[in-house]
Amino acid sequence: MDRTFKLFTGKTFLFHFILIIGAAAMVLPFLWMILTSLKTYAESIQVPPVLIPEDFQWGNYKEVFGLLPFFKFMYNTVIITVLRTAGQLFLCSLAAYAFARIEFPGRNILFLLALTVLMVPGQVFLLPQYMIMVKLGWLNSLQAVIVPGLFSAFGTFLLRQFFMGLPKELEEAARLDGCNHFQIYWKVMLPLAKPGLIALGIFTTLWSWNELMWPMIVNSSPESMTLSVGLSSLQGQYLTNYPILMAGSFLAILPMLILFIFLQKQFIEGIAVTGGK
Amino acid sequence: MREVPLQTEVKSAKRIKVSSLAKTRKRSDYFWAYLMIAPTMLGLIIFYLWPIVQNFYFSFTEWGAFGQYEWTGLDNYKRLLEDAALLKAFKNTSIYIIFTVPIGIFLSIIVAVLLNQNIKGKSIYRTLYFLPVITMPAAIAMVWKWMYNADYGMFNYLLSLVGIDGPQWVSDPNIALYSIIAVAIWSGIGYNMVIFLSGLQGIPKMYYEAAEIDGAGPVTVFFKITLPLLSPVIFFVTIMSLIGAFQVFDLIFMMIGKSSTALESTQSIVYLFYQHAFVLNDKGYAAAIAVLLLAVILIITAIQMVLQKKWVHYD
């Protein structure tokens, strides 16, 4: 009794009041997106606005699939996201292990070189990267987005921090058992760096799923488009049909939304880790 | 223990063996190290480091219609100084930064501090505030554009209820940039909040207990304890937000149409870079804009590094 009452007194009440207003501001656009996506065009432009559509127009979603190869976009985005994330987790952790746990000539210079990439804004790479894609004949292909996305200075840096924090004894024990460095990395260190791997995995997944500029530059044909780019092209074609645009937007964010609902803790901790380091 | 005398006896013989063993071990160390960093280093060199060099080279060239280019020395850089559109883009980006960064950080600190209290439903709030972070900017831009719609949008309807004739949110050149700023703040709060929250959780409880004993009020506690102890995190978030805000592109590209009346008053430096590089095929000049971006970002970082000594408390 006492505790439920306390919820509504003084300070706590004020806290909840502020937080609820903020939360409403966060959620309302999503709610409006979903509601609009289920309206007829006529309902969407009615004044005063219709809050809840009379009949839910599920057909809008079907129409999105008819207007654009949306399944294809979804497929492209999933492939790109999965391969980039898996690739980065493997390659970055491999390099990070060597930078953190092995002494070798040129280690500091090479690591500094990798750090340079972190300091430079992405636009500086874009043009030459584009020229590389032209030379390789990779325009309008999935590998144009996947291959450069397999290498990450950020990921290497992040995981190196994790490997550096692990005790030396573990490694020595494995060495006495006759393990080579790859075996130590694979069997001993990788399982211990799990929080770092999850953080990098989440970060890369989010980034690959949502990225707009690079996929738009290299892949302009519907065959190889990602969802972000597809959405921007949908906007060009159906400038005013907002129920269709909202249905398309909701479809594009739905997979990430579902992933987030299941992995909330990992998402939030992952961002705290990648942001805080 | 009986091994001790034995060890001294064979020490000299063993030393040779040990050192050759250490050598092979070292050699195998090097082998594995180079093998393990090779894929990432090669990838970084080919796709990132070499392009930096190339971009510098491109910034001294002018491009023709068929992808051929010729050396033009400092022409592009001279052009940078006289380009009115670039100056305008610089102004737009500055306004965008001046509003999004401080307001965004201020609001996310407030949310983080509130969520760090002992209240119910913390994790639900946290999840809701985090929603925009996982949402693709293209979709965020789309729904906000719809709410901003001058004729049928939610905002102008709500304004009409109180008798205000709402503006053209995204096509009025005087307002469009601020409409974008509002969306940027909205979508960034959750990200910074999470970082601040983990920073707050790192502040030892004893400081608060001591303050309570001294009878300090919540405002005093916030300014005398929370803010100073959070300052390293605030510093970090400020730098990252500044750098991120400086590169704003997605929201502007999605919300402001290519032929919009508000384009000139909203386009950012990166938008201009994109235009020159991939729409106008003016790649040499675009490369020079990219160099300018690099210079500005390095300057921001350097200034922040100097300033941090004045207000960041590391313990």
TrEMBL record, chain A:
The chain crosses the membrane at residues 12-35, 73-97, 109-132, 144-163, 184-209, 242-263. Keywords: Cell membrane, Membrane, Transmembrane, Transmembrane helix, Transport. PANTHER family: ABC TRANSPORTER PERMEASE PROTEIN MG189-RELATED, ABC TRANSPORTER PERMEASE PROTEIN MG189-RELATED-RELATED. The lineage of its organism: Bacteria, Bacillati, Bacillota, Bacilli, Bacillales. It is found in: Cell membrane. The keyword Cell membrane applies. Residues 74-263 form the ABC transmembrane type-1 domain. CDD domains: TM_PBP2. The keyword Ligase does not apply. It comes from Sporosarcina globispora. InterPro entries: MetI-like, MetI-like_sf. Belongs to the binding-protein-dependent transport system permease family. GO terms for cellular component: plasma membrane. It is a multi-pass membrane protein. GO terms for biological process: transmembrane transport. This is Sugar ABC transporter permease. It holds the Pfam family BPD_transp_1. It comes from the Bacteria. PROSITE patterns: ABC_TM1.
